[in-house]
């Protein structure tokens, strides 16, 4: 017992991460509901950005419409809150006009995959250097709980009162098939792992898609009989996933019904702004600014 | 802001009342049951048990709690 | 202008030349008849000057991309036609409320829907004004010759930068594909307006600040200002607001910055209107027939005159009203079933008869059709 106590005393006191350089003054509290995981995801992102050591002005956060799309309003970067589903189209224009900006898109399952599905697959196809963070909470939160393209079959939403019959998209498989060169899955529960994934995504040259499992206790949780926000994190994010690193050593029955977490795909392929710079040279023009 | 600090070597837990939405995530995932939700506000119930692991801060969606 | 500078070129080519002259460095678009030549030409020319050409996945992406690029500091353009223009409406509204300069070219074709893709039309005049939802500013230019497409495209960029608003260049398939001799001006020969950028300290920058109708400078992302842009109603600092007073003021401001400057934005050609007793108000391709008709009537001693708006929105109320005061009747030939006609009627305030000459069979209105109508008032 004594040794333990001594060890404890010797342990260095942790310094809490200082978010004040990244959060705009006076913008908190944010609009997200009690227990919504979006804030946890945002904090992981800010720590990942801090790790890059790059100044805030090097980053642009672009979003569409929905709960996750409110992210840019709180943070001290170049920020653009656009139209439902169109964040990637705006981001594409911005990135091509200013290739040195690190463009991060914060989007939701509905914003990215339903109304914005076309832009999602084509951004991946081009392998344009953009980080796409899909805050995937299986529901349209902002419009109060309709089923989305990732809602699982049988689940209840305000527009699927008899249980959802629409089969869901797998964000990661879709991203990989469309051509994204960095594809990963994280959760709000696994905040540290998510931070590392986001750092890697930012450093990656090409389209990086991160499917981030996140909880909406207000709608998805309430309709589907989860007891609390923590209960959702426990069941969906913790018990519902397995780290890709552990997956190989686990028996098949332990993987059943579980989603893999971690970096699922990471390949090099020519990136769009770099290819465009080559095209400009070929045409005899100067390199774009 | 509530500050809980007793003796020098004990952890300091800051709960920003204007930011805490009382979601209870920090208390549920605290490995040593330091925190307790009272009404809509998080409170410190057992500071001595705190190991400064910061899980509460890292899983707080509202920038509302810090430990040092 | 020296003759060696004269070139024989298509309207859509002249549009591309105008964009390049105005300093356009970014084009995003989706192939659609009859506007595609603008894209084809810029796909060759923009890379040569380090500019960006992008073929997007659809017209929605195209309009959004040019707004994004504009926020990156690039003068940007897209070109389309009816169906694509319909898809662009939401993005157009975003550019209005967020006050982001950009230029949208709509080469009008027969509609609704797919209609007759290679057939000309002038039926998007009202859509160009009211297509996107909510009260919003509209600046729409209607060139009538290949040369004028060049000039009006340059002016579109200038107006977009001056007023921080999207500007639409609206012409029809006939002028878009017609070939005429045009003279390309030397650099510096006609004015090109550059975007006003902020000079204040970043922490003091308010992207939507205004006093006495002035328009705030627009910073580019990544140049130190780190500001916020949203399609929600926002306060001077760019952040969303639910203050009803601010919302009302902001909506009025974006509309008034155009309407109160209508005299500066409006541009008309007056052709024998001084002593006209019968007026014609026509724009785009129909004004070519109208001009011919007026000339013919003058030869016969009939005092006809043409008022040709080069800016259709804001509507040239003053010029139409002045004409209405002096003439017996105003004829409005247009390739639709009555759009500008109703505006002329409104602006005339009952001072003269207003008669429309409408045609939607995708063939241009023949000068004789206008001559016959003029004769009825002699």
Protein architecture, described:
The complex is a heterotrimer of chains A (289), B (68) and C (378). With 289 residues, chain A is an alpha/beta fold. Chain A has helices at 2-10, 38-52, 87-97, 109-113, 117-126, 171-178, 191-203, 217-223, 229-238, 244-247, 252-255, 272-282, and strands spanning 59-63, 78-81, 102-108, 130-136, 139-140, 146-147, 182-187, 208-213, 241-243, 259-266. In chain A, the strands form two sheets. Chain A has an eight-stranded mixed sheet, sandwiched between helices. A two-stranded antiparallel sheet of chain A has the order 5-6. Chain B is an alpha+beta fold and 68 residues long. Chain B has a single domain (2-67), classed as Alpha-Beta Plaits, CATH 3.30.70. Chain B is 13% helix and 25% strand. Chain B has a three-stranded antiparallel sheet with strand order 1-2-5, with no helix packed on it. In chain B, strands 3-4 form a two-stranded antiparallel sheet. In chain B, β3 (35-38) and β4 (41-44) form a beta hairpin. The longest helix of chain B is centred in the middle third of the chain and has 5 residues, at 25-29. The radius of gyration of chain B is 11 Å and the shape is globular. Chain B starts with a strand and ends with a strand. Chain C folds into two domains: 1-265, Rossmann fold; 268-375, Rossmann fold, CATH 3.40.50. In chain C, the strands form three sheets. In chain C, strands 2, 3, 4, 5, 6, 7, 8 and 14 form an eight-stranded mixed sheet that branches. In chain C, strands 11-13-12-15-16 form a five-stranded mixed sheet, sandwiched between helices. β2 of chain A pairs parallel with β10 (228-230) of chain C.
Query: Radius of gyration of chain B over alpha carbons?
Result: 11 Å
CATH topology type of chain B: Alpha-Beta Plaits
The string of secondary-structure elements of chain A, in order, is HHEEHEHHEEEHEHEHHEHHEH
What is the 3D form of chain B?
globular
Q: Indicate the multimeric state.
A: heterotrimer
Tell me the Rg of chain A in angstroms: 20 Å
Record the strand order, biggest sheet of chain B.
1-2-5
Number of strands of chain B: 5
Mean pLDDT of chain B comes to 92
Q: How much β-strand is present in the residues of chain B?
A: 25-35%
CATH architecture of chain A: 3-Layer(aba) Sandwich
Helix and strand sequence of chain B: EEHEEHE
Largest interface: A-C, 45 and 47 residues
Kindly report the spatial arrangement of strands forming the biggest sheet of chain A.
Answer: 2-1-3-4-8-7-10-9
User: Termini of chain A, distance in Å?
Assistant: 64 Å
Unreliable sequence segments of chain A:
1-8
Q: Count the DSSP helices of chain A.
A: 12
Structural class designation of chain A: alpha/beta
């Amino acid at each position: 017992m004594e040794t333990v106590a001594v060890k404890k005393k010797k342990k260095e006191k942790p310094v809490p991460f200082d978010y004040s350089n990244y959060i705009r003054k006076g913008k908190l509290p944010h609009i997200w509901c009690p227990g919504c995981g979006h804030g946890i995801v945002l904090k992981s992102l800010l720590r990942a950005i801090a790790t890059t050591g790059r100044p805030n002005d090097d980053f642009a956060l672009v979003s569409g419409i929905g709960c996750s799309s409110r992210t840019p309003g709180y943070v001290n970067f170049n920020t653009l809150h656009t139209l439902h589903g169109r964040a990637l189209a705006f981001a594409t224009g911005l990135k091509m006009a200013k290739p040195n900006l690190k463009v991060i898109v914060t989007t939701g399952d509905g914003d990215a995959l339903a109304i914005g599905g076309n832009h999602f697959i084509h951004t991946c196809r081009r392998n344009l250097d953009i980080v796409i963070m899909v805050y995937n909470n299986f529901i349209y939160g902002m419009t109060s709980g309709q089923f989305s393209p990732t809602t699982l079959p049988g689940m209840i939403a305000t527009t699927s009162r008899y249980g959802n019959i629409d089969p869901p998209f797998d964000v990661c498989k879709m991203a990989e098939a469309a051509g994204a060169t960095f594809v990963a899955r994280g959760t709000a529960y696994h905040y540290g792992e998510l931070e590392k994934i986001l750092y890697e995504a930012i450093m990656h040259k090409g389209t990086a898609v991160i499917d981030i499992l996140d909880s909406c206790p207000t709608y998805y949780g309430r309709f589907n009989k989860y007891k609390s926000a923590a209960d959702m994190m426990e069941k969906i994010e913790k018990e519902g996933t397995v780290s890709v690193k552990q997956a190989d050593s686990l028996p098949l029955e332990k993987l059943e019904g579980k989603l893999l977490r971690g970096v699922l795909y990471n390949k090099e392929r020519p990136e769009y702004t770099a290819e465009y710079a080559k095209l400009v040279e070929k045409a005899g023009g100067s390199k774009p600014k | 802001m509530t500050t809980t600090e007793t003796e020098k070597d004990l952890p300091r837990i800051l709960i920003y009342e204007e930011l805490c939405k009382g979601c209870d995530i920090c208390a549920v995932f605290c490995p040593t049951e330091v925190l307790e939700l009272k009404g809509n506000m998080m409170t410190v119930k057992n500071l001595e048990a705190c190991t400064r692991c910061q899980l509460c801060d890292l899983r707080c969606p509202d920038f509302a709690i810090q430990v040092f | 202008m020296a003759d060696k500078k004269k070139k024989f070129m298509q309207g859509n080519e002249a549009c591309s030349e105008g964009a390049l002259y105005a300093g356009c460095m970014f084009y995003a678009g989706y192939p659609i008849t009859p506007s595609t030549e603008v894209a084809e030409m810029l796909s060759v020319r923009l890379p040569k000057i380090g500019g960006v050409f992008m073929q997007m996945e659809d017209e929605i992406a195209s309009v959004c991309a040019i707004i994004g690029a504009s926020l990156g500091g690039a003068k940007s353009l897209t070109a389309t036609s009816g169906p694509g223009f319909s898809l662009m409406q939401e993005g157009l509204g975003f550019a209005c409320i967020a006050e982001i300069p950009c230029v949208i070219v709509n080469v009008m074709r027969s509609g609704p829907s797919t209609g007759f893709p290679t057939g000309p039309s002038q039926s998007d005049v009202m859509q160009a004004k009211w297509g996107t939802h909510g009260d919003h500013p509209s600046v729409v230019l209607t060139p009538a010759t290949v040369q004028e497409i060049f000039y009006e495209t340059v002016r579109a960029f200038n107006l977009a930068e001056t007023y921080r608003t999207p500007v639409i260049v609206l012409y029809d398939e006939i002028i878009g594909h017609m070939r005429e001799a045009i003279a390309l001006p030397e650099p510096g020969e006609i004015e090109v307006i550059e975007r006003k950028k902020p000079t204040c300290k970043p922490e003091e920058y308010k992207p939507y600040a205004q006093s006495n109708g002035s328009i705030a400078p627009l910073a580019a992302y990544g140049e130190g200002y780190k500001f916020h842009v949203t399609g929600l109603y926002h306060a001077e600092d760019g952040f969303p607001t639910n203050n009803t007073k601010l919302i009302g003021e902001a909506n009025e401001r974006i509309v008034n910055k155009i309407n109160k400057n209508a005299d500066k934005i409006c541009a008309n050609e007056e052709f024998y209107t001084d002593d006209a007793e019968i007026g014609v108000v026509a724009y785009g391709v129909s004004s070519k027939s109208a001009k011919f008709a007026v000339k013919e009537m003058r030869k016969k001693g009939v005092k006809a005159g043409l008022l040709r708006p080069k800016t259709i929105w804001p509507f040239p109320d003053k010029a139409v009203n002045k004409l209405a005061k002096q003439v017996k009747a105003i004829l409005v030939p247009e390739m639709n079933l009555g759009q500008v006609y109703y505006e002329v009627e409104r602006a005339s305030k009952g001072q003269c008869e207003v008669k429309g000459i409408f045609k939607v069979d995708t063939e241009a209105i023949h000068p004789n059709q206008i001559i016959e109508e003029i004769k009825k008032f002699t």
